[in-house]
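Hi there,

I know you've been waiting on this one. I reran it after we fixed the sequence typo, so this is the corrected version. Both the input and the resulting structure follow.
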Amino acid sequence: MPKKSKTRRSASQAEESAWWEANEEAVGEQFEKTLAQGYSGPCNLIVTGESTITKIRLGSRDLSRTVKHAAERGLRYQTYLKMIIHEALRSAEPPAIPQNPD
């Protein structure tokens, strides 16, 4: 089982955002290494947007399926998750009602 990480405290959301951006690759590599070692606990995925960080908790089975499907498409799993979310949001939108020009 991987070591439990120490909790970081940031003075502001901007400071936390800057830290995640600066350490995105290292955190991702450690996450993938831990996953490859067979860790089966809950996982936190960090999906960065324009200015907001969103944390999504996924079980190990869902994460394994996500990694597998992403690899089949030649994508990183974070990119694949964003793609799935965008598709789901588009399909959940009601169809636009065409405006009748008078």
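Quick highlight: Residues 13-92 form one domain.

Best,
R. S.
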